[in-house]
Amino acid sequence: IINSFSFKECENLCNISIPRAIKIELGESCFSYLKQISSIKLECQHLIVGSNCFESCNLLNSFSCKICKIEFGSQPFNNCTKLQNITIKYEPTTTFDQLMNENQNDEIFLNDNFFNKCSLLNNVELDIAQRITMSTSAFNGCNNLSTIKLKSLSSITLTNKNFQQIRTNEFKVIGKQVTFGDSCFYSSEKL
C-alpha cells in the first residue's frame, strides 16, 4: 500500500517498477506532479489506482501492467501531457477458474476525463477479464490516438460519443457482448 500523496512532487523520481505482488494499492495523488517520471511498470494480481494518482506527471510516456483485476479512481492520468502508451494485460494465476468467475462480474470504468489532456496518447491496449465501461469523455483532449484495442472476457460498453472526432486508425474490440452508444464514432476522420 502506497498511501495518498506519498510521493507527490518528488522531483527526482524517474521510474516506478514494482515486480510481482499479490495486491498493489496506490492512494489518491500518490505519484502526482512528478517531474522526472517517464515509465511505470507493475505486475500483480490485484491493482487499485487511486484518484489523480499520476496527475500532471508531464514526462510520463508509458504505463504498463500485468494484472488479474484492476480498479481505478477518477482521473488517474489527468494532464499527463507526454503519455503515449497504456498497456494493461490480463495474466491469469494458478487459481484461474476462481478468478474468472469473480472478475467477470467486476467492472473497470474509464470515467470522465480518465485520460484528460493526454494529447500525445497514441496507443491504448486493455486486455482484461473484467467488464469494460467507458464514459463519454474518457479520452477528452486525446487528439493523437492511433490504436485502441479493448479485449474483455466479459462485456464492453462504449457510451454515447465516446470517440467523437478522435482520429484513430485502428479500433479493435473483443468481448462476449459489445455495446456501442449513440454517435460513438461520429465524425471520426480516420476510421
Poorly predicted runs of 5 or more residues? none
Mean pLDDT: 85
> Total number of helical segments?
1
Tell me how many strands there are. 12
The global form is: globular
Strand content: 35-45%
> How does the major sheet shape up?
8 strands, parallel
Q: What are the secondary-structure elements, in order, as H or E?
A: EEEEEHEEEEEEE
Q: Please report the distance between the alpha carbons of the first and last residues.
A: 41 Å
Estimated radius of gyration: 16 Å
Helix/strand/pairing category: mainly beta
Helix content: under 10%
Topology:
Layout: E1 15-26, E2 39-49, E3 62-67, E4 69-72, E5 85-90, H1 96-103, E6 107-110, E7 123-128, E8 131-134, E9 147-152, E10 155-158, E11 170-174, E12 177-180
Parallel strand pairs: 1-2, 2-3, 2-4, 3-5, 5-7, 6-8, 7-9, 8-10, 9-11, 10-12
Question: Which key phrases capture this entry?
Answer:
8-stranded parallel beta sheet; 1 helix; 191 residues; globular; 4% helix; mainly beta; 4-stranded parallel beta sheet; 38% strand
Structural features, described:
The chain is mostly beta strands. The chain is built from 1 helix and 12 strands, in the order βββββαβββββββ. Strands 1, 2, 3, 4, 5, 7, 9 and 11 form an 8-stranded parallel β-sheet that branches. A 4-stranded parallel β-sheet has the order 6-8-10-12, with no helix packed on it.
